[in-house]
Specification:
Layout lengths: L16 E3 L5 E3 L11 H10 L3 E6 L4 E4 L1 H7 L3 H4 L14 H14 L5 E7 L5 E12 L5 E9 L1 H23 L4 E5 L4 E4 L1 H7 L4 H5 L3 H5 L3 H14 L1 E10 L5 E12 L5 E10 L1 H59 L5 H33 L7 E4 H19 L2 E4 L6 E4 L1 H18 L5 E8 L5 E7 L33 H11 L3 E7 L3 E8 L9 E5 L3 H14 L4 E5 L2 H11 L3 E5 L7 H9 L9 E5 L13 E5 L4 H11 L2
Parallel strand pairs: 14-16, 20-21, 20-22, 22-23, 23-24
Antiparallel strand pairs: 1-2, 1-6, 3-4, 3-7, 5-6, 6-7, 8-9, 8-12, 10-11, 11-12, 13-15, 16-17, 17-19, 18-19
């Protein structure tokens, strides 16, 4: 069965016993007929196994080898059998050391039974093998070592390739700019790269693994349900837009690209994919959309203004042309007939010219005033004003004319009727209304200033007269500048038709309105309605800021200024809008720099909503944003850092 060496005859398998441990031995012997394991079968295994087999004696001499071993070692059987086992190694190997280890291990039985090894052969070829050693005893109790050599070079190369691929994948995964993740079906992160951690604002993978994806990542649970449903149905998602929450609670917009992870049975075990952060793009799209809407609105307004301008030009050109024609006509008469005209005629002509010129000047001044206010080119200075005092000032200035016409002027506005407004403009409103009333009130008539409190808490200042009244069909034309409605007064006074449109624009700048009621022969009442004042001790203040510290500091300041004030908080414009509509605060502080919706965008929403349009708003910013804000009686600004004294002055300017 085995090749012979030059020292002894090799004994058949049946004469060997396998040493399993010190107390138990298994003998390779023929068995009875019904349990026979023929030696031919052992010989068949030896000859046909793909593993190299080598039998060495106690001196390390090769007793037998099979063909697979010869092929592995690249030597023939004759080159191996009878030679020391070190013959298979490269010449640079310390063979004495190998021999010593072999003898000691065989003698003590302490050799390693199974292990893997890489070594250089006699022809300098490197091989990797798995070695299995079995100690055998013959009937003379002489020790032999049966060594099985399995070539694992290919397997090791495959393992190294797999390991290298794994390392490359891990490197790509970790270094990828695109956020990547793996998650379970139950809603837990299994793995995520650093870009994913950065995107969501988490410090470590451990921290991210502890969150519940359903409730702590998704803003809308319905979106999560849709994602899981699509993955179960289609096995993948390409570019689904989602809204997710970062660790700090801020909202981001992402596109999801994901695929299902399944086992061989087809069971869904999880998901893996990437996220594309499109928050900036969405914000830009929203801004562009707002700009487009604003441009469309502006275009409509410009079209409307252009039509209005054409009407105004048509009306004004007529009003300008008539007095100018009169002026030029009288000038020609004076020039051509000066020497023949009497002094009385000359003075009459000059009076006509003066009257027409004054009419022209009044018309031009009114147009300029209206234009400056309409286009925002006039600087408004808002302060606390007692309307009682404004009424007294205007009545005093018109008292001479009233006495001449024998008309009584009464100011019944109570003291302390405070509004936040521009003194000059409000004085002009009172002057225009009382001046108009003087034109159309007959002798012994009365013009009265009074205050009325509305059911919603707002108050109106009324200018009433006992004059001739205005026809009902003409009331709607009074405030339209393109109509330029005008009637001559009872004494022939000529108006420009621009006074009431100017009053309307001034009231708009003060967040108020102007209305009129009139009956022929019964007189006319103009009502100036101002926004509801904020009253100390009963106020509700909304503070809008994405920084918790800023909200807390401002709330402390407000509590010191307004005792008993209810403080409401919002972290962003959308949340603040909902609170403002539901709670109707009496004062709003808003930061300018906020995610998604800045302070000015929030202000525009407040002013465009009928519920919130009259709420005073203070915008707080560290930037110079004055050129971006359309300030009015209900809107003011504060620069950071907030100084308590300045804040107190500003708040008290809005709180009465």
């Amino acid at each position: 069965m085995f090749a012979q060496n030059n020292r002894r005859n090799i004994i058949p398998f049946s004469h060997f016993r396998h040493v399993q441990n010190e107390t138990q031995k298994i003998t390779f012997r023929r068995r009875s007929a019904d349990r026979t394991l023929p030696i031919d079968i052992l010989q068949l295994v030896w000859d046909n196994t793909s593993d190299g087999m080598r039998l060495t004696d106690s001196d390390g001499i090769i007793v037998a080898v099979n063909s697979a071993f010869c092929s592995l070692i690249r030597k023939t059987e004759s080159e191996l059998v009878g030679k020391e086992f070190t013959v298979m190694y490269s010449s640079d190997v310390d063979k004495n050391k190998l021999r010593t280890i072999y003898m000691r291990n065989l003698e003590t039985g302490s050799f390693q039974k199974k292990y893997e090894k890489s070594f250089r052969l006699h022809d300098d070829t490197m091989i990797e093998i798995e070695i299995t050693k079995t100690e055998l005893l013959d009937e003379a109790e002489e020790r032999y070592l049966l060594t099985e050599f399995r070539d694992i070079s290919e397997r090791k190369r495959w393992e190294r390739n797999v390991q290298e691929s794994e390392l490359n994948y891990r490197s790509l995964f970790e270094q990828a700019v695109m956020p990547m993740y793996q998650s379970s079906v139950e809603g837990r992160f299994v793995n995520a790269n650093s870009s994913m951690l950065t995107l969501l604002g988490y410090a470590s993978l451990t921290e991210l693994r502890n969150i519940n994806i359903d409730t702590e990542l998704y803003c809308d649970l319905k979106q999560r349900e849709d994602v899981v449903g699509l993955m179960r149905t289609n096995g993948e998602i390409k570019g689904k837009e989602l809204q997710l929450k970062k660790k700090d609670g801020s909202i981001i917009h992402v596109l999801l690209y994901s695929r299902a992870i399944t086992v061989d049975s087809g069971t869904l075990t999880g998901f893996e994919g990437t996220l594309e952060d499109i928050t900036f793009r969405k914000e830009t799209e929203e801004k562009i959309s707002k700009y487009v809407d604003a441009l469309e609105s502006m275009q409509k307004e410009l079209t409307k203004l252009n039509v209005q301008k054409d009407k105004i030009i048509a009306v004004i050109s007529h009003d300008l042309r008539s007095p100018l024609s009169s002026i030029l006509g009288f000038c020609d008469l004076l020039k051509e007939e000066f020497t023949t005209l009497s002094d009385k005629e000359k003075m009459e002509f000059i009076d006509y010219i003066k009257e027409s010129a004054e009419q022209q000047l009044s018309l031009v001044n009114s147009m300029l005033d209206w234009s400056r206010i309409e286009t925002g080119r006039i600087a408004l200075t808002f302060e606390n004003i007692d309307l009682k005092n404004i009424g007294n000032e205007v009545i005093h200035s018109l008292l001479g004319l009233a006495k001449k016409k024998q008309i009584y002027l009464e100011n019944n506005i109570p003291n302390g009727s405070i509004v936040n407004g521009d003194v000059k403009l409000l004085r002009q409103v009172f002057s225009n209304l009382i001046g108009n009333a003087l034109k159309f009130t007959p002798a012994n008539g009365v013009i009265t200033l009074s205050r009325e409190i509305e059911t919603d808490g707002t108050h109106s200042i009324c200018v009433s007269d006992t004059g001739v009244g205005i026809p009902q069909g003409e009331l709607q034309r009074l405030f339209k500048i393109e109509e330029k409605y005008s009637r001559n007064g009872l004494d022939g006074e000529i108006g420009t038709g621009l006074g009431l449109p100017l009053c309307l624009e001034i009231m708009k700048k003060h967040g108020g309105t102007i209305t009129v009621k009139s009956e022929i022969g019964e007189g006319t009442t103009f009502a100036l309605k101002f926004p509801q004042p904020v009253r100390a001790g009963s106020s509700r203040v909304l503070i809008v800021d994405d920084q918790k510290g800023n909200r807390l500091l401002l709330s402390k300041f407000i509590s010191r200024i307004l005792s008993g004030t209810e403080i409401l908080f919002a972290e962003n414009g959308e949340e603040a809008e909902a609170i403002a509509i539901a709670k109707k605060p009496t004062l709003i502080f808003t930061d300018y720099h906020m995610p998604a919706m800045n302070g000015i965008d929030f202000l525009r929403k407040m002013r465009n909503n009928s519920v919130t349009k009259n709420i005073p708003v203070i915008i707080v910013s560290g930037d110079d944003i004055d050129n971006q804000i359309q300030y009015d009686a209900l809107t003011t600004g504060l620069r950071k850092p907030i100084i308590f004294k300045k804040l107190e002055e500003t708040v008290k300017g809005l709180v009465h």
